[in-house]
Amino acid sequence: MKRIAVWAFYGVGAIAIAYLALYAYAVFTGRDLQPGDPIHIFRKPDAPSYSALSRSLRA
Q1: Per the structure, how many domains does the chain have?
Q2: Could you tell me what percent of the chain has a pLDDT over 70?
Q3: Tens digits of per-residue pLDDT, 9-59?
Q4: Which residue of 16, 33, 47, 56 sits 20 to 30 Å from the alpha carbon of 2, by its own alpha carbon?
């Protein structure tokens, strides 16, 4: 039982280190955000407009 607890502890530690490594990668490779910068959301031009659908259902 002690051996399973030790391996579980190592597993949790490995997951934590992997998470910190991914966070550091995202911080150092991501672009800096400045207050007031527009957020660019890209979508297909032929995508349906769901807001128009909800307006028609309200009437």
Answers
A1: 1
A2: 83
A3: 999 999 999 999 999 998 888 777 678 777 777 778 887 777 755 555 555
A4: 16
* Closest to 29 measured CA to CA, from 37, 40, 21, 38: 21
Model pTM score: 0.50
Task: Give the whole-angstrom CA distance, residue 15 versus residue 23.
Answer: 12
CA angle, 25 as apex, 24 and 26 as ends, to 5°? Answer: 90
d(CA 50, CA 52): 5
CA angle 20, 38, 43 (to 5 degrees): 85
